[in-house]
Design a protein that fits this description.
The chain is α+β, with helices and mostly antiparallel strands. 31% of the residues lie in helices and 28% in strands. It has helices at 20-33, 58-64, 66-76, and strands spanning 2-6, 44-52, 85-93, 97-102. Strands 1-4-2-3 form a 4-stranded mixed beta sheet, covered by helices on one side.
Length: 103
């Protein structure tokens, strides 16, 4: 299993009313954070752990991880809908960060 600690804040964007440039910048940061992810043989399971001050509900958690998921899929060389990759989302409390585990 590989584990990567990423210093990014995964916030729920479902109800955000923000300027398109702010959304673009945040999305780019999340996708680029996946640059540290190394190739991994398929099939695999990718667990994205959101670390934050409070917990999100399930649909907001998955929404917050979307851009990071896209970046990870690109690093693995697949589309994020590829059936060879199983995606899991969990969260824990602490200072804002994201932890990615690939097994």
């Amino acid at each position: 299993m590989k584990e990567y600690n990423l210093p990014i804040r995964l916030a729920s964007t479902a109800n955000l009313r923000e300027h398109w440039a702010a959304k673009y910048k945040r999305t780019k940061v999340h996708k680029n954070a996946a640059i540290v992810i190394q190739k991994h043989p398929l099939p695999c399971t990718v667990e994205i752990i959101r670390v934050g001050k409070r917990n999100l509900d399930g649909d907001n958690l998955q929404n917050a991880c979307k851009s990071l998921r896209d970046g990870i899929a690109a690093r693995l060389g697949v589309d994020d809908a590829d059936p060879r990759v199983t995606w899991k989302y969990t969260q824990q409390r602490g200072d804002y960060a994201a932890i990615v585990r690939i097994s």
